[in-house]
Amino acid sequence: MRFSGWRVLREGLTGNKGWAPHWRDPEPKAEYDAVIIGGGGHGLSTAYYLAKNHGMTNIAVLEKGYLGGGNVGRNTTIVRANYGQQGNSEFYSHSLKLWENLEEDLNYNAMMSQRGIINLFHSDGQRDAFARRGNMMINQGDDAELLDREGVRRLLPYLDFDNVRFPIYGGLLHRRGGTARHDAVAWGFARGADQRGVDLIQQCEVTGIDIENGKVRGVQTTRGAIRAKKVGIVVAGRSGQVAAMAGMRLPIESHVLQAFVTEGIKPVIDHVVSFGMGHFYISQSNKGGLVFGGDLDFYASYAQRGNMPMMEHVMEAGMTLMPMIGKAKVLRSWGGIMDMTPDGSPIIDKTDTEGLFIDCGWCYGGFKAVPGSGFSFAHLMATGEHHEPAAKYRLDRFRKGRGLMDEEATGSQHNLH
Amino acid sequence: MRIDCPMCGSRDRREYYYQGGAVMLARPAPDAGEAAWDDYLHLRENPAGETEELWQHDGGCGAWLVVTRDTVSHEISNVALAEDVKRAMRKAS
Amino acid sequence: MRLAGKGLVDRSTPVQFSFDGTTYKGFAGDTVASALLANGVKLMGRSFKYHRPRGVLSAGSEEPNALITTGKGAGQEPNVRATVQEVYDGLVTRSQNAWPSLDFDVMAVNDLGAPFLGAGFYYKTFMWPKRFWEAVYEPVIRKAAGLGALSGKSNEDTYERAYAFCDLLVIGAGPTGLMAALTAARAGADVIIADEDSLLGGRLNAETGAVGHQSGAAWAAAVVAELSSMENVRLMSRTTVTGAYDGGMYGALERVNQHTSHRGGGAPLECFWRISAKHAVLAAGALERPIAFQNNDRPGVMTAGAVRAYLNRWGVTPGKRVAVFGNNDDAHRTARDLAAAGVHVVALIDSRNDVAVPDFDGRVFKGAQVCNAAGRKELESITIRTATGEEALQVDCLAVSGGWNPTVHLTCHMGGRPTWREDIQAFVPTDGSIPNMTVAGACNGVFSTQQCLNDGVEAAKAALKALGKKNADVEVPKAEDAPYQMSPLWAVAGKGRAWLDFQNDVSVKDIKQAAVENFRSVEHMKRYTTQGMATDQGKNSNVAALAMLADATGRGIPETGTTTFRPPYSPVSIAAMGAGAQGHGFAPERWTTSHKRSVEMGAPMIEAGLWYRPSYFPKPGESTWRQSCDREVGYVRNAVGVCDVSTLGKIDIQGPDAAKLLDFVYTNMFSSLKVGRVRYGLMLREDGFVMDDGTTARLGEQHFVMTTTTAAAGNVMRHLEFVTQALHPEWEVSFASVTEQWAQFAVAGPKSRELLNGLLDEPIKGESWPFMACGPVSVVGVEGRLFRISFSGEHAYEIAVPSRYGASLFDILLKRAEEMGGGAYGMEALNVLRIEKGFITHAEIEGRATAFDIGAAKMISAKKDCVGKTMAARPGLVDEDRPQLVGLKPVDAAKQLTAGAHLFERDAEAVRINSKGHVSSVGFSPDLGTMIGLGFFARGPERHGEVIRMVDHLRGVETEVEICHPVFLDPEGERVRG
Amino acid sequence: MVELIQISPCAGLLPITLGSVTLDEQDVGRLTSLSPFGDASDLSAALEKAHGCTWPKPNRSTGKDGGRCIWFGRDEALLIGPAPDMGLAKHGAVVDQSDAWAVVSLAGPGAVDVLARLVPVDLRDAAFKRGHTVRTQVMHMNASITKLGTDHLMIMVFRSMAGTLVYDLKGAMAAVASRG
After folding, report:
1. Are A137 and A89 in contact (CB under 8 A)?
2. Cβ within 8 Å, pair A135-C900
3. Is D10 among the domain residues?
4. Which fold has domain A113-176+254-340?
5. CB-CB: which of D76, D134, D142 is closest to B8?
6. What residues of B are in contact with residue D144 (Cβ under 8 Å)?
7. pLDDT score of C869 more than 80
8. What pLDDT digit, counting tens, does each position of C506-535 carry?
9. InterPro entries from the entry (chain D) (predicted)?
10. How large is the angle between the packed helices A88-100 and A370-383, nearest 10 degrees?
């Protein structure tokens, strides 16, 4: 079924009786050409692009819970391509281009909203660092503008320009950045993959990876053994546990990142605003809630919930930067599990086991990478060759010190990125 | 979250700095080789369960601590001074 | 309508407030909802999506419909629950999410379009034409969405945060909580009891049953009085415990002045408490749930318990002709109480066949259901379906009870999932969900008052035992002990829309449609339909929606899923949780001793690692910062300049192993440094990248003073603690930050020695203080320290005195410098001076630079191990193709350099793959008459003299630059030694 | 003749009284940080001999006005009042910190309530008695807090943060005063 305004109209007039499931619930087959472990955003997009770009349709996505139940459904929905390091720059650039055509591609309204992202800076030194990043963005072919204080004031008149601990010197504006409706992205990819014949299997937890003579043979699951020629691990938040099934140790420590949403209020923030000194970023959802977050809680965690000190710090940052949001009330807070790597950048690579691939380490930047990650990972799984925009996301870069992409420049401590 | 500092007593998490796995206590010899150093700095067991971590009570007494904590329940079962743990490690080796 | 002689409001204190411009009268103790109902106002809000007219549903913070906006100007506060907001004289309130008025709302047209606006419709449309999403559809949707509005003005109210500690935190002050608090308090425990209501007592204030020999309300008041008199008890009314966190930490919001007109000054509007409790008793009660039927959202349809609360607590009847509809015995009390108060109870409709009902003067329908309601802005009639057919009844209020849901919310905050109990058709907390918390009373599924009182005592005893305290004797009074009997009824079958989530306009049909479209997981259903995503977090509707999903998918409720809730229990303002941070409170401000004088001199102060430092010191006649900067550079190059450098980190290191420590944290050797000398040192992170640099002076055989950069001072201190505690506890060494102890000033320039000699009690003679010498000095009678070091390449010193003398010394230095044709210089000049000499700062060692990159590979001593040495040798860190430090100057001296620009080969296109480096620092050199810069370029050191291209797309600058040695001035270093 | 003039960290900022609580700067004499190179016992003995106060246990202070020694962190104590005996330096680092700290006293009924707005430690008499001391935080600043008596506390933060200390305490004092 194709979705469109006409379809909504027709169904509305006929009692909404014609709607069909967005995806099937098939029983797992005994064997697939490829199996994707993990039905989150990245896993679903990998399946979609395997089917669409590489004609691999005899594949399955195995999800231990429900589709899109991980970080893709618990984030602050920001989409951007404003990275400063070689390796990241080209990857996110490619991903953003996929976002820009996602609705047409998927026939699903993911509400990609290119409302612009402004990264504020608060000193001459920060301005120069942002200039270096902005120039990298333009070198890559993306958009960036350096705003001075008055330029920021024109866009964000509600910031506190006069009585603030860290005065606003200006901002780096990335107009093509914005937000998207997170759940819809997962569902759109799921529906797209399902329509191309991919089996999406929920409530199916992988309990083991079968390896013989250095080659992957399939997986053990709570719904039985499944043979596969290729297996891709795409399980943000559980990467270490699943990789351990194949005897691997990863350069990852899992951390909790909290996010917050307020009660709905009438439109008041039209952009995505990021305040580096306070590790605070905010946007307003189409439903009216202010969606915002801050830094990691900083301790390793799988609990998907945070604690008060970081929550308060985030609120403090909001109050010093834009005290007009003070009377908005936080409705809900939640935490996601972040795969933190030693340079803050992800991994899309083969493993030492033939046929076994891994896509992990997205830190807290995984949402915007959903299309790009799936596209590149599918390319790697299908062809055995690294996709050019993701070619630097190697596992061995830490050991060799080659091609590190340390955007935050904080070094090899996992939680500092 | 509260951590029971062996010096200061039970204190709010906000007084503490987290560094990472307590593996950082076991610094390899300079010539231990690439794999040992990769292990030390990058690779992590990262268990969903109990683990030993390094924290510093930087908003309090300044002591570095080895905290045994569950990463799923956040329950803390032991806190020791890092210097004591390190001394014991030396004795044992 | 207010009833004479009923309720607990203070009739001697009338209050006037306004709603939508009309002034109403109420009494102290009224909420906006009770006062409006007393005045016959039923329409209080509009729903989110279809803008359906809505009245009050509940009498508590779970209210989904009666959300209003209070206050004016910057004090405007959206989404206030009319059921919580107390009235006070002068309170201004208005309705929201309606235009032009609550009574006539244009957006109500959405309701007519409902067939096209069902669950998830927006995922299927608005995709064509492509650019219409951002240009047309999204703006319209955004404008229509949202509830109330923020003022857009900066907050002007005071908010507060505070900490509290206790042995026992009792959450909820109903019969269970009061009894628990009393039991624990009498046993001597340190108790906090918190309740979100203004009046403690919980349901006791809303019911007519007796406790002991008095009314429930009177008993509660007596217990509250006793608790208030005890020193070991803190009573917190108007305080909602909003979240449960690790280690017995709880968040709580106290509405300190939301019920008064007191604003501004020191008086906080709200206080966010961080409560540390050794044990907790959750006695949060239960919430009544509605039943879904067609048009069950009409103003006048309320929960049965809310009707009793308005009647018994506030002396208000929400209607003159009331019907009661329920599936449980509890609903009967509403009929009984209304009838006893003289209100006309038209009918009692019980969905069960075989039940005993109270005796009252009205019709009784057993085995019947209300299947429809009529009256758009006010309930006019209901339709009852019995075994024999349908019948309409004229009523203006319908009290509904679908049973009670225990308030499990806090027990879910740490990941706990509640357990389904078939007998009460509800979820109850799962044991152990929150460590050291005992759940008691109605929130544990215990519903009679007597059982609640008993349970409160038991919970307190369990807590006392855990706390190691002895029990105290507490007599439990007698109270109502009727069993709670119910039979599930979630929704009445029928056509039309039966509402579940009132605020988000989610109907039973939406849940069913979601199931059809294969959103069968609870999480999928919630997200697809927005069920439970409204401001009540699904408190009123989640369980019924789950039942509907179970029904639609042919599963039982527990197999379908469970409900979970995240903090906060009820919404908390950002201002409260971030209290104190607005303006300058976000981070400490660090002032040097020369701060005041610098500000007086008109210097713009800039932020550096929490410190403030002067950017430059403008003089009359200078119109640009560059003019000031050039002049200040000239001071140093030609006469003498003075600069406060106190912000640099200073660490005093002493002990037998002090030199060993330095050898380990620095790449180069310090054990060989002579006493009385200073050496530059480079520090790496363990991953091999540069962490910091600075000079360290040896004051004694076992005594060093290390200098760090301003920004890295804290990190370096932590690093030293790590090394000495976690890696080498055997070393006998101590260190302390002395950054704050010393005010330190750079005195730089050819006349620096002359200037200092006027102040030093023992002047510097000849080579008594050679370059890199250090030691104690006496500065006009004050013991100080002198270091012959230079960050400008000039003959220079840094002089330090105890901070109490800092301001005074700065003044004296300035005066003398000015007499010699010099003066103060700020950060801009300092930057130019150091670039001219190729000295690096954090613009160069920004965290990704290696010793190799900055040309300091040889500083990594081969003779010893040090932090970072092994990893710095990784192949990627010493790759010949890495961009390395170079000097840059424009080929055309008039051209501009900009920091942050990228560097390319002369003929290469300025695109990513061609970028071979970047510009890190720039400044205008008055001596050279051109801009100069430092930067990094691949194989740069091999290419001095070659011309490359700098491109700054952002600033529109493109300049041909020559690669040169990073030292632009005095490469032999004659001046610094001279 | 030039002369160096002394200025105290809170000059021009204090005293302040709001409600029943008064905040004032305290001149406590010399501040000397003491840290043993190894075990503290020798240093403790020397300390007692020279100044009459022993090495304090964690969270405790020894001595009295004019010669007080407060625990100041791991392996660190702060000698308050007298100029340190030079013999102490044989057993550990002796570092003059007289100018490094802003020292204020907060006194009057409600002083503990004021600090409860800013300090994440229970400072009520039952938990924090006269002579007890803690290293903790005041809002965002690392601090040392010592109880000198009921409703009487000594608070120390880095000298450069004196302005912020007064700002934070003043706000908390006003909030407490407003509750009456």
Report:
1. yes
2. yes
3. no
4. D-Amino Acid Oxidase; Chain A, domain 2 (3.30.9)
5. D134
6. none
7. yes
8. 999 999 999 999 999 999 999 999 999 999
9. TrmE/GcvT-like
10. 110
Q: Domain segments of chain A: what residues?
A: 25-77+183-252+343-416, 113-176+254-340
Q: Are D104 and D23 in a shared domain?
A: yes
Q: Is C737 exposed, middle or buried (0-12, 13-18, 19+ CB in 10 A)?
A: buried
- The string of pLDDT tens digits covering residues A394-409 is 999 999 999 999 999 9
pLDDT tens, position by position, A112-152: 999 999 999 999 999 999 999 999 999 999 999 999 999 99
Mean pLDDT score across all residues of chain C: 97
On the question of a cis peptide bond just before residue C568, with omega within 30 degrees of 0, the verdict is yes
- Subunits with 3+ Cβ pairs within 8 Å of A are B, C
Q: With an 8 Å Cβ cutoff, are D136 and B61 in contact?
A: no
Contact status of A103 with chain C (Cβ, < 8 Å): yes
A413 inside 8 A of chain B by CB: yes
Whether ipTM exceeds 0.95:
yes
Is residue C73 scored above 80 in pLDDT? yes
Residues of D within 8 A of C188 (CB-CB) are none
| Cβ contacts of A252 within 8 Å, gap of 6 or more | A239, A240, A339, A340, A341, A360, A361, A414, B44, B46
- Decide if pLDDT at A99 tops 80: yes
**pLDDT averages per 10-residue partition of chain D, 180 residues:** 93 97 97 93 93 96 91 97 95 97 98 98 98 98 97 98 98 95
Q: Would the CB atoms of A308 and C414 count as touching at under 8 Å?
A: no
The residues near C785 (Cβ < 8 Å, ≥ 6 apart) are: C699, C705, C742, C774, C775, C776, C777, C799, C800
Task: Kindly report the nearest CA distance between residue D160 and chain C, in angstroms.
Answer: 5
The ranges assigned to domains in chain C are 10-116, 158-286+407-467, 290-402, 493-560, 595-647+741-825, 649-737, 871-977
Please judge whether A302 and B72 are an interchain contact, meaning their C-beta atoms are less than 8 angstroms apart. yes
Helix axes C304-312, C330-340, angle to 10 degrees: 30
Across the interface, do A399 and B12 touch by the CB < 8 Å criterion? Answer: no
Just give the CATH number of B2-92: 3.30.2270.10
CATH number of C649-737: 3.30.70.1400
According to the model, what pLDDT value does residue C144 have?
86
- Return the structure tokens found at B73: 């329940």
Q: Which one-letter amino acid corresponds to residue C117?
A: L
The answer to whether A182 touches A367, Cβ cutoff 8 Å, is yes
CATH 3.50.50.60 correct for C290-402: yes
Q: Do C808 and D141 touch (CB under 8 A)?
A: no
Please state the domain count of chain D: 2
CATH of domain C10-116: 3.10.20.440
- For residue C340, how many other CB atoms are within 10 A of its CB? 15
**pLDDT digits 0-9 by tens, C385-396:** 999 999 999 999
Per 3-state DSSP, chain B is made up of helix, strand and coil in percentages (nearest 5) of 30, 35, 35
Residues D142, D74 within the same domain: no
Report the CATH number at residue D121: 3.30.1360.120
Q: Could you read off the pLDDT of C409-436 as tens digits, one per residue?
A: 999 999 999 999 999 999 999 999 999 9
What residues 120-159 of chain A have any CB closer than 8 A to a CB of chain C?
Answer: 122-125, 127-136, 138-141, 144-146, 158
| CATH code of the domain occupying A25-77+183-252+343-416 | 3.50.50.60
Q: Which residues of B touch C (CB under 8 A)?
A: 1-3, 10, 12-13, 17, 19, 24-25, 27-28, 30-32, 34, 37, 41, 54, 56, 58, 62-64, 73-76, 81-84, 86-87, 90
Is C883 an 8 Å CB contact of chain A? no
Q: C715 and chain A: CB distance < 8 Å anywhere?
A: no
pTM over 0.95: yes
- Residues of D with Cβ-Cβ distance to C584 under 8 angstroms: 164, 167
Percentage of the residues of chain C whose pLDDT score is greater than 90: 96
pLDDT of residue A227: 98
- CATH number for the region C158-286+407-467 comes to 3.50.50.60
DSSP line for A308-362: HHHHHHHHHHHHHH-GGGTTSEEEEEEEEEEEE-TTS--EEEE-SSBTEEEEE--
pLDDT of residue D1: 66
Q: Are residues D133 and D169 in the same domain?
A: yes
pLDDT digits (tens, 9 = 90+) for C303-329: 999 999 999 999 999 999 999 999 999
A247 to chain B: closest CA residue? B45
Q: Domain range spanning residue D133?
A: 16-27+99-179
Shortest distance between the Cα of D160 and any Cα of chain B, in A, equals: 17
